[in-house]
Design a protein that fits this description.
about 250 residues, alpha+beta, 7 strands
Length: about 250
């Protein structure tokens, strides 16, 4: 299939990000009116849109997204300023990380449960958990609710060149060139965490793949890259039928 490239189309980026927000709400991954998704709309990645402060995710529309500049600290003085932790984390990600065209930060139940363990590592016990083998960063230095710029910078430094981050005592973040890629990664990260948490709950030893098999399985996911775009496109078609106002 042809992969859509909307990276510099602000209107389409807004629509896609609003769709990701609505879909994540439908899956029950959001937390009240907290958590935040953002997407760059400039070539340098520093201008980005983010969900509005304390609006329930089931109501967010494309036009509601707040346009920010990662280099403009006065953003937080505006009447439409985003949530303080959204600004702290996402301004740093968009300013510091070139792979952060899209940044989805959220506290989904299974991934967050895994993040609360002393050992939050996603072990390769099936093909979905293996997708993240040696392809995920682990932020093990939670510093409280990220309302300070220094915490955002620390998170960005921990992410490095990764596109998926397990944040101990906190939640998860996925990054991507497009909303479709970042959202598909988030979907599979929560699926992987659910599988692992359920396996742990049996009390039986895990059957962990050896490194060679885990690496081979992870590499095979690249053959299904187009499925990431197809997955998101299909989910948007469901929204188009059931809740088309996300595009407004």
């Amino acid at each position: 299939m042809t992969r859509p490239d909307h990276t510099l189309d602000e209107t389409q980026t807004r629509i896609d990000l609003a769709a990701a927000i609505r879909l994540s709400c439908r899956y029950g991954w959001h937390e009240g009116v907290a958590n935040h998704f953002s997407a760059a709309v400039s070539a340098d990645g520093k201008r980005f849109v983010v969900n509005p402060r304390w609006v329930h995710w089931s109501r967010v529309r494309a036009s509601d997204l707040v346009l920010c500049d990662a280099d403009d600290a006065s953003t937080m003085d505006r009447p439409d300023a985003p949530d303080p932790s959204a600004w702290s984390i996402h301004s740093a990600l968009h300013r510091e990380l070139p792979q952060a065209r899209v940044a989805l930060h959220i506290h989904p139940p299974y991934a967050t449960a895994l993040a609360c363990l002393d050992d939050p590592v996603i072990k390769p016990v099936d093909q979905v958990t293996a997708r993240f083998f040696r392809r995920i960063a682990y932020d093990l230095s939670f510093g409280g609710i990220a309302t300070e710029g220094s915490e955002g910078m620390r998170i960005a430094a921990t992410v490095g060149n990764h596109a998926t981050v397990m944040m101990q005592n906190h939640g998860v973040t996925t990054l991507g060139t497009t909303v479709a890629e970042a959202w598909d990664a988030l979907y599979h990260l929560e699926r992987a965490a659910k599988t692992l948490v359920l396996a742990y709950s049996t009390g039986q030893p895990l059957k962990v793949m050896d490194d060679a098999l885990a690496e081979a399985t992870a590499a095979e996911w690249t053959k299904y890259k187009d499925a990431e775009f197809a997955h998101f496109a299909e989910m948007k078609r469901i929204l188009d039928r059931e809740a088309p106002d996300y595009k407004d």
